[in-house]
C-alpha cells in the first residue's frame, strides 16, 4: 500500500485557501452588519458563525477540488 | 340618563388622584373625617354577605368601623355569620327581620346582600330611615323598582352605591384611565363573556325540599333574571364605563339548553348592545364549558385590553430582538435559493390571530376591588356623601340588564323608555 504524503507546501496551500474563505466570511459579516443595521460588536460576538461559514465553504470547495482531481487523474491514466 | 363625558372625566380624575394617595380611590376620605366609628349592619348573611363580612374583618386600611348588627331570615345563614363574628371577637345584635334592625340597631350604614328581588324594598326602607346603603348588584328585579331605589336616594339624600367592585379595582381604574386618554385608539367593539361549567345550584337540605326556591332563587324568574342580573350586569357596567356612554339598543337570545332541571332562567345567553356611534358590545354566558372563563376585552385600533386577565396586546407587537446580521444574510440567501415560485393558488389568506403574549396592564394588583369598595363605603358614610356617578354606573347597568332580559323574552330590539333615563 502506497503511503499518502502531505507535503509542507500542500499544508501551506490549504491554509491559504482556508484563510481566503475566512476573509470572505468576515467581509460578508461586515456587509450584513451594515445591511441589517445590527451592532458592530457582532464582529466579535459572531466570530463562531464566521468560522463555521468559512469551514463550510472550505469543505464544499475541497470536495469539488477532490472531484476535479479524481476526474483529471482518471482521464490522464 | 345623560352621563356626560365631562362628568365622567372629572370623576375619573378624582379616582386617579385619590388612588395615588392611598390604596383605595376614596381612602383619603377616611383619613380626613372625624374619629367617630361607623356603625355597620349586614342584611343578608348568605354567601356574599359573609364574604363581605370576612373582608371587613381582614382589611387593614381602617379600623374606623364596627359591625353592630346582622340580619337574615334564614337561621343557618344567620348562625354562620354569628360564628364568623365570634371568631373575630365581635358580638353584633342579630335580627331575622330587617325592619327590626332599622328600628333598633342604630346603624349608620348597611350592606345589603339579599337575593335580587328583595333589594328594592329593603334598600328603600333603609334610605328612608336615613341609613346609608351599599346594596349588592344587580339593583332590583324590575325596572320600576330600580328607578324607585334611585328616587329614594335622591329624595332622602342618603348614600346608595351598588356592589360593582370593579369600579374600585386599581387594575380597572388604571385601564379606564388609559382607555379614556385614548391610548387604545378608537374603540369599535367590546367583547365579554362569562363561561363556567357548573349548574349554579346550591345544596338544599334533603329533609326540606320546600326550600328549593328560597335557596336557589337565582334559577327562578320571580326572584332573578339569572345570568343577566347575576353575571352580565358586572360586565355591561365595564363596557359602559369604558365607552363613557350608554347603549342605545339591545338584542338578546337565551335558552335552557343544557340544564333541564326545572330552572326558569336561561343556562346560556348572548346579547348585542349598540351605542350611538355604532360601537357594539358583544356578550355571552354559558354554563357548560369554562375554557374561556370570564373576560372583558376592549378592542381599540391601537391595541386590545383583556381586563380580567390584566393583559394589553398592542396591534403592532414589539419586534423581537433581531438575529445577528450574518444569520439574517444566510437566511435571505437560503430563502432566495429555495423560494417557491407561485404559479397559482388562493388569492386570499385567513388573518389568523396575532401571536404575542402582551404586557401587564397594571402591576401590583391585589384582590378584585371588594376591600376598597367596603373601605370607601365607610368613608362615604362618615362624610355623608358619595360621588353620584358611582350610583349612576350601577343604576344604568341594572336598567340595561333588565332591558336585555326583555329583549330576549320579546325577541325584539329594545331601547330604554324615557322614564328610566336619569
Ligand atoms: N358583587 C359580586 O361579585 C357578587 C357576588 C355574589 C353575589 N352577589 C350578590 O349578592 C346578593 C346575595 O347573593 P348570595 O350569593 O349571597 O345569595 P345567598 O342566597 O347565598 O344569600 C342571600 C341571603 O339573604 C337572606 N335573605 C333573603 N331574604 C331576606 C330578607 N328579607 N331579610 C334578610 N335576609 C334575607 C337569605 O336567607 C340568604 O341567607 C345577590 O344580590 C347577588 O347578586 C354579588
What would you say this structure looks like, in words?
The complex is a heterodimer of chains A (77) and B (422). By secondary structure, chain A is mainly α. Chain A has one domain. Chain A has three helices and no strands. Chain A has helices at residues 8-35, 42-45, 47-76. In chain A, helix 1 packs across helix 3. Chain B is an alpha/beta fold. Chain B folds into two domains: 12-166 and 369-387, Rossmann fold (3-Layer(aba) Sandwich), CATH 3.40.50.720; 168-318 and 353-367 and 396-420, 2-Layer Sandwich (Dihydrodipicolinate Reductase, domain 2), CATH 3.30.360.10. Chain B is 38% helix and 18% strand. Chain B is built from 13 helices and 14 strands. In chain B, strand 5 (132-135), helix 7 and strand 6 form a beta-alpha-beta unit. Residues 1-24 of chain B have low confidence and may be disordered. At the A-B interface, helix 1 and helix 3 of A face helix 11 of B.
List the helices and strands and how they pair.
The complex is a heterodimer of chains A (77) and B (422).
Chain A: H1 8-35, H2 42-45, H3 47-76
Helix pairs in contact in A: 1-3
Chain B: H1 5-21, H2 27-32, E1 38-43, H3 47-58, E2 65-71, H4 75-87, E3 93-95, H5 98-104, E4 109-112, H6 119-128, E5 132-135, H7 143-156, E6 160-162, H8 170-180, E7 187-195, H9 212-215, H10 227-243, E8 247-255, E9 268-275, E10 280-286, E11 294-300, E12 303-306, E13 311-314, H11 325-338, E14 359-360, H12 370-383, H13 388-410
Parallel strand pairs in B: 1-2, 1-4, 2-3, 4-5, 5-6, 7-10
Antiparallel strand pairs in B: 7-11, 8-9, 9-10, 11-12, 12-13, 13-14
Helix pairs in contact in B: 1-8, 3-4, 6-7, 7-13, 10-13
The complex binds nicotinamide-adenine-dinucleotide.
Amino acid at each position: 500500500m502506497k503511503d499518502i504524503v502531505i507535503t509542507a507546501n500542500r499544508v501551506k496551500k490549504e491554509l491559504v485557501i482556508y484563510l481566503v474563505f475566512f476573509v470572505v466570511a468576515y467581509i460578508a459579516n461586515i456587509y450584513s452588519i451594515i445591511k441589517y443595521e445590527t451592532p458592530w460588536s457582532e464582529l466579535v460576538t459572531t466570530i463562531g458563525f464566521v468560522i463555521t461559514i468559512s469551514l463550510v465553504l472550505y469543505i464544499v470547495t475541497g470536495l469539488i477540488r477532490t472531484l476535479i482531481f479524481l476526474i483529471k487523474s482518471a482521464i490522464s491514466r | 340618563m345623560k352621563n356626560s363625558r365631562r362628568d365622567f372625566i372629572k370623576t375619573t380624575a378624582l379616582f386617579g388622584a385619590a388612588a395615588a394617595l392611598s390604596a383605595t380611590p376614596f381612602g383619603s376620605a377616611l383619613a380626613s373625617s372625624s374619629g367617630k366609628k361607623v356603625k355597620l349592619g349586614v342584611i343578608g348573611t348568605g354567601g356574599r354577605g359573609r364574604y363581605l363580612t370576612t373582608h371587613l374583618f381582614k382589611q387593614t386600611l381602617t379600623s374606623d368601623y364596627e359591625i353592630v348588627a346582622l340580619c337574615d331570615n334564614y337561621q343557618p345563614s344567620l348562625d354562620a355569620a354569628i360564628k364568623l363574628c365570634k371568631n373575630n371577637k365581635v358580638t353584633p345584635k342579630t335580627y331575622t327581620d330587617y325592619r327590626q334592625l332599622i328600628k333598633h340597631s342604630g346603624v349608620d350604614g348597611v350592606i345589603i346582600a339579599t337575593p335580587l328581588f328583595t333589594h328594592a324594598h329593603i334598600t328603600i326602607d333603609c334610605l328612608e330611615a336615613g341609613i346609608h346603603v351599599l346594596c349588592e348588584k344587580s339593583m332590583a328585579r324590575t325596572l320600576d323598582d330600580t328607578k324607585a331605589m334611585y328616587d329614594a336616594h335622591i329624595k332622602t339624600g342618603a348614600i346608595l352605591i351598588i356592589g360593582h367592585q370593579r369600579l374600585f379595582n386599581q387594575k380597572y381604574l388604571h385601564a379606564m384611565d388609559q382607555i379614556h386618554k385614548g391610548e387604545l385608539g378608537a374603540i369599535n367593539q367590546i367583547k365579554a363573556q362569562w363561561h363556567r361549567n357548573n349548574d349554579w345550584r346550591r345544596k338544599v337540605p334533603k329533609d326540606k325540599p320546600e326550600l328549593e326556591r328560597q335557596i336557589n332563587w337565582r334559577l327562578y324568574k320571580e326572584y332573578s333574571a339569572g345570568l343577566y342580573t347575576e353575571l352580565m350586569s358586572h360586565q355591561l357596567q365595564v363596557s359602559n364605563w369604558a365607552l363613557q356612554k350608554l347603549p342605545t339598543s339591545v338584542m338578546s337570545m337565551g335558552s335552557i339548553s343544557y340544564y333541564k332541571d326545572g330552572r326558569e332562567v336561561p343556562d346560556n345567553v348572548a346579547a348585542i348592545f349598540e351605542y350611538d356611534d355604532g360601537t357594539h358590545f358583544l356578550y355571552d354566558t354559558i354554563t357548560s364549558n369554562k375554557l374561556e372563563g370570564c373576560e372583558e376585552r376592549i378592542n381599540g385600533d391601537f391595541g386590545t385590553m383583556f381586563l380580567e386577565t390584566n393583559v394589553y396586546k398592542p396591534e403592532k407587537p414589539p419586534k423581537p430582538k433581531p438575529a445577528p446580521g450574518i444569520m439574517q444574510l444566510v437566511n435571505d440567501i437560503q430563502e432566495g435559493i429555495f423560494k417557491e415560485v407561485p404559479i397559482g393558488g388562493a388569492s386570499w389568506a385567513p388573518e389568523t390571530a396575532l401571536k404575542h403574549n402582551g404586557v401587564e396592564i397594571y402591576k401590583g394588583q391585589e384582590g378584585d376591588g371588594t376591600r376598597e369598595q367596603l373601605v370607601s363605603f365607610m368613608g362615604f358614610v362618615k362624610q355623608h356623601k358619595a360621588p353620584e356617578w358611582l350610583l349612576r354606573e350601577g343604576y344604568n347597568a341594572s336598567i340595561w340588564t333588565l332591558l336585555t332580559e326583555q329583549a330576549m323574552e320579546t325577541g325584539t330590539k329594545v331601547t330604554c323608555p324615557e322614564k328610566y333615563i336619569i
